[in-house]
Amino acid sequence: MEARCTSRKNPRVVTLPDELVAEILARVPFRSLCQLRCVSQSWRSLCSDPAVLRRCPQTLAGFFFRTRPHRRSRSVRQFVNASGRGPPMVNPSLSFMPPVYSRASFLDSCNGLLLCRRDDIQSQVDAYFVCNPATENWMVLPDLQVTKRRFSFRAFRLGFDPAVSSHFRVFVLESDPRPPKTWDHLMTGVEIFSSETRAWSYRQSEWDGGNGAVVGWDSLFFNGILHLTSPGSSSLLTMDMDGRAWGRILTPHDFDFMGVSQGRLHAVHRTKNGGDECISIWVLEDYAGQQWTLKHAVTAMQMFGARIRSFGNSCTFIVRALHPEHGLIFLTAGRLRSLLAYDMDKKEVRFIWNLGENHIFAQAYVPCFSDWLSDGR
What we know:
The protein is 11% helix and 41% strand. It is mainly beta and 377 residues long.
């Protein structure tokens, strides 16, 4: 009995070499590493090792968004974890950037990188930059060239896929100079910035014989190709990262949102049936053959049930993201723009966060610890 008691008071502790611990931690998801950093100083050092972070499996960490406490006040950058619990896994202040970039707006995000624009309206010099909050790397983009081309609107998109290239692209879509009758625009050309050459190049649209194509708001960079919604055409527009190959993917419907889940391109179609709203999720099973399969369909009433009244008179919701590994749809609904997660397998809805009525830009964020050439660090 005494031996057992002594054993409990003085348990044998097996100490593993740091190299073996690092090898184990490299297989732990980023979210768990953030929690393990609180164990001790030595664990904090191990869990922050760039070699470990580059190898650990990455998944959806949360969402960047901006809010305005009042309509006339400055917007505030914020971050909410995908679980809705705990302190933010990412610091939304971008404190690693030089002070001149302390006030900046998010324009787009892609595979761990953020495309931002300075809020300093007094100067348009060095107005745009791309940064990686996980590695605290950043690059200021050269100014867009002055051009005689006429356009009514410019939309900025970011393209980055570490599995394809360590370099990113910034696409500036230029629309027809005639004011559009709707929110959709006729894209006639694109300025492309390459982080490899650090220069801009212009490409005229080659869709529809060079006459341009109607482009919607949503875009997706997947397998080194920029995909764009095209309202009214029952297709997705495609363009390679250098603007040399232009094409279309035929679709069963006009899609409102695109995302990647389980390595395949997914798209969302919204319809209204009376006062109820329905979303259907389609997956591109065969990319080369352009074969789509209906994966899931659900109405607002089926999703929320009696709780639908808590979202006000309108049950309209907006899809914000698809989970990269699991069958989860992230969406916002209601006056307070509640961020929700809908499980397609369990058919359950989970509340995450109230983004606020005046929130701007809610973008999913998956950390990326890949090395890339930058101006910082």
